[in-house]
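Q: How would the structure tokens look for this protein?
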Amino acid sequence: MGAADQRVAELLERWMASVDLHARYLALDDAAYARVQDWPKHQRPTRRVLDLARNRLLELRRIVGERNARGDAGFAEALELMALLTNLLGSQHVDRFIPLAQPPAAPPATRPPAAPAAARRAAATSGPPAAPKPAPKPASKPAPVAAEPAAIDEATATVIGDAVRLLSWGREWPQLAGLIARLANRPAETDVWKILRRHRAAIETRARRPRD
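A: Here is the predicted structure in token form.
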């Protein structure tokens, strides 16, 4: 399996996982759905739309597997080019799409167990605790001055340039990492996110778009 085949397979897996999460979110009301993650502006996908996306993903995954078995190395590269051109040229500013859903990073925190009754009684009879001494105020530090590093590596510069172009063409910030990672010779999506977060101010300044 070539590099393009691997990237396409990973992309299809991410999309399928996203569709599965959206199917679970159908049971949530609008307020709970809005709290799941920082969604881009969109209309909530319906069950019919999710079923259609799942069926098309299964069909595309089957076709990719058949082409890969035949040794057709150019098919996955053609899919990557088509995905890029669809985002750059075919897609307009529409709200009806399925945003990429990310699995939650960690379960919500739980309350600590209540103290036993005996411990509560002992605390009540021992009198009020002594007032803690006020902590010394930390010395004020001058506000850091944001500055771009004097030099950046080639991969970082490429990602920054991609992000500036995509923002200028109307893409939303949450979409950038996925779009850039699918391009040839780009870092993995997690590494792209790190670069975008580190250089967000400079990227948005160059793209002449205010931060959300």
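Residues 107-111, 144-150 have pLDDT under 50 and may be disordered.

Residues 164 and 206 are 6 Å apart (CA to CA).

Upvote if useful.
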